[in-house]
Amino acid sequence: MRVPLSWLREFVDVPVDATPEDVLAALVRVGFEEEDVHRFDLQGPIVVGRVLEFVEESQTNGKTIRWCQVDVGEDEPRGIVCGAGNFFAGDEVVVTLPGSVLPGPFPIAARKTYGHVSDGMIASAKELGLGTEHSGILRLAELGIEAPTGTDAIALLGLDDVAVEINVTPDRGYALSLRGVAREYAHATGAAFRDPGLREWDEIQPGTGFSVTVDDRAPIRGRQGASEFVVRVVRDVDGTRPTPPWMIARLALAGIRSLGVLIDITNYVMLELGEPIHGYDLDKLSGGITVRRAAAGEKLETLDGNVRSLHEEDLLITDESGPIGLAGVMGGGTTEMTDATRNVLVEAAIFDTVSIARSARRHKLPSEASRRFERGVDPLIPFVAARRVADLMVEYAGGSLTTEGGALYAEVTIDALNLPKGFVSQLIGVDYSDTQVSGALETIGCEVADAGDQWSVIPPSWRPDLTDKWTLAEEVARIEGYDLIPSILPIPPAGRGLTAAQQGRRRVANALAAAGFVETPSFPFTTEEQNDLWASATGEHLPSIKLANPLDGQAPFLRRSLIPALLRAAHRNVSRGFTDLAIFETGAVFLPEPGVEYGTATVPPLGQRPDDATLAALNASIPPQSRHVAVLLTGSLVDKQPGQAALVADLADAVDAVRVIAVAAGVEVAVAQGVRVALHPGRAGTVSVDDVEVGYVGEVLPAVSAGADLPGRVLVAELDLDLLLSLSSERVVAASLSGFPAATQDVSLVVGVEVSAGDLRAALAEGAGELLESVRIVDDYRGTGVADGSKSLTFALRFRAPDRTLTAAEATQARLAGVAVAAERFGATLRE
Known about the structure:
Layout: E1 2-4, H1 5-8, H2 20-29, E2 33-39, E3 46-58, E4 64-71, E5 78-82, E6 92-96, E7 101-102, E8 106-107, E9 111-113, E10 116-118, E11 121-122, H3 153-156, E12 162-167, H4 178-189, H5 201-204, E13 208-209, E14 212-215, E15 226-235, H6 245-253, H7 261-273, E16 277-281, E17 289-293, E18 299-301, E19 307-309, E20 315-319, E21 322-326, E22 330-331, E23 343-351, H8 353-362, H9 368-373, H10 382-397, E24 400-409, E25 417-420, H11 423-428, H12 434-443, E26 447-450, E27 454-458, H13 469-480, H14 500-514, E28 518-519, E29 525-526, H15 528-535, E30 557-558, H16 563-575, E31 581-590, H17 612-620, E32 625-634, E33 636-638, E34 647-648, H18 651-665, E35 670-673, E36 679-689, E37 692-700, H19 702-707, E38 714-720, H20 721-726, E39 743-752, H21 757-768, E40 772-781, E41 790-799, H22 808-826, E42 829-830
Parallel strand pairs: 13-24, 14-17, 28-31
Antiparallel strand pairs: 1-12, 2-12, 3-4, 3-6, 4-5, 6-11, 7-8, 9-10, 15-23, 15-24, 16-23, 17-20, 18-19, 20-21, 21-22, 25-27, 26-27, 29-30, 31-32, 32-38, 33-34, 35-36, 36-37, 37-38, 39-41, 39-42, 40-41
């Protein structure tokens, strides 16, 4: 909302020396956001001049110019060249002297043209920023202005005015008017406020004799499309009369261009009172006015020249000829006021906010009128606004106010709200006194009655946003000052904060980042083929959720695995020269169950609170969503450098990443050989916790990695993070460090090639008992000295006691106990 300060001063006492910044600061104190300051982009000297005489001179280019002598209040007249022909000797005009700057910017200087030195310029309204029509020189006599030559024309025409712009939130539609902003400035500063909406009832009543009907057979949410509708008739207007320059200046600063005196007056009153006004050329109407919903197939040509197909929910203004306006949005072209209009029907109404908002959005036709109606207009203002327009048309368009008119209206009733005493202080956190609370509400126009332990509050008619005790409390905080609210962070109750699952997910992500992996979040969209390839071990078809309106038509399905997104991220990086990658992602995957239809629940309409059964149906229509974690490695982990060959990522590095995840999640995982269709045979493994499979790890099949345009080896792992964390039985805590030395021994066992290293390691660990601190495989030998069909697996064992230094004998005894269990289960023998 742009607010010219000269206009604001008509309704509230703004200090003469107040700057635009001072006014903005005051409005910010009562909850508005400042946007900008607007001024006319011109500078003086710009003065009133009188044309003494002129000589018309024809030029070789076919143009005729006038060599003028103009009195500008100086000792000698100035010679000025002018190409316009709509002025006469003796006319008072606006002269821009050398040194002035017009909008553009267009600096004025004395310059030689058409054989003369033009010592200034005689300006048009367009050149001064007072309009868009370039209809010739601005003649002050046509505006009814008389002033001595040499008078400052900037001040005379209101071009020295300035406007402040504030952002008005959707709940405060009353501030889309000078009336509303002036009231708020008075709240902020205590300045005297003069309400332009106060007029005697017998003065603003319309006449009779004009038929007005509301026939709304399809009200939205049970509310009639129009609750008030008032019309007045002004006859014998002259639409060719010029709009007063001060009105044009104010409209221009408010962001509205001048369209002729009749339309300018309706726009002026809309900005002044917040009530959108529409004027009809009365002679173009057929019969009375009926407000109704559109019929199927109806069309309307609006003022912008577009023919619009109407919806049965659209609210229309009609006469006997059919639709003549889209109610509360835009009028129709058939009854538009023009310069030829002689009799005007002035309309002011209150329309249903929802109907107007839907029509404006449906036709993509936002307007100044719909912007106000959809936020709510004061139901007590239409009669005042209609009379204000009629009075201005009488004054500036030469019309006559008649006794013709009509009105439909209902009694305005506003329900009282109950505000418990102490509630405001408890909610806002400031110890307000009862006097402060009731005083603040009375300041904004509420009627406050003391009812013992609470107040009964009737909001003012212009505040439809005040609907409950919380909105009343916000008003108290706003009027008393936001600066009183202490800046204290609330202390959360014990036990609040991140859940155990949230903490676990953060630990896993932080651990991978600390291990050198880079997180690459992605969109959860993929193809059905990728879902089948990565979500099942055998590549069988699995059900997937297809989006009704996908962002990418080539990837319309919700993912069942994170690996396809990591492959795409790797491809983008490799294509840009980044070939050494260690990346990861944590995110949701969508796992619909076979035979279950999802997304079939009916979504309730906006503005209607769903019941428990509706919410349950909506939740049931959503597929299970599990959070996974996945990693991808390719290229080198360590670059080649002096004395160091490049270390290429291999399967062991992917397994290490799995163990990093496991440690962060607080579980111990086992990795066993497995088979997956997308992974290299013999280089794929399943990951499990206590015999519960939680994911897989392995090297991508060369054909699959080539299909993803990735050269070289690609290692991946994917784990069900939610399942992994659910298997963690206790909090992850840092292990205590023992002060006693470790005893290390190696053991080489010969087993059949079908025995997995993981199973053999588990047998060793079980037999070695509590003294075993760690066991890891260091060698897998198959060759001379080992029988065909067998292999030698070497493990490094580390023993430690928490309370003493182990002897070599104790360590050897524990090692042999582990060998015994391995021999019992797998026939393992010590390699000599």
